[in-house]
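ARCHIVE CARD
Drawer: 12
Card no.: 0347
Subject: one protein chain, sequence and derived structure
Cross-reference: see card 0346
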Amino acid sequence: MADILGFSLFYLILVPIIVIVGLFFVSGIVYIGRYDIGIQTKKMFGTKMPQGKIIACNGEIGIQADTLMPGLYWRNPFTWKIEKEKVTVITEEQVATIEAIDGDVIPTGRLLANSVECNNFQDAKLF
């Protein structure tokens, strides 16, 4: 009877732990589709962003400049929030205007900023 009771207690403790660890692992899996991009938001374990900034470039808490390209990823669900957005495609027949809401201020008297080498807007830190 003691062996059966000990065996049952072992599984009563082990099975819930395995289930919880499995759910934690699965809840952190994110698939970014072919025409999507992943926007990462760090929820904890970082410094606060400087005053006036809204994009985190150095691992601060908040929306990260680094995005996730198509693929399968795992992020700790307690630390990270991942949102999927559709990629905007601008064809050769179209013209687009890009407006930055973070970064250096345009000098007084200028309407447009200087051109920046940023890999066709793929590198948010450079842009």
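Annotation on reverse: The two ends are 70 Å apart (CA to CA). The helical segments are 2-27.
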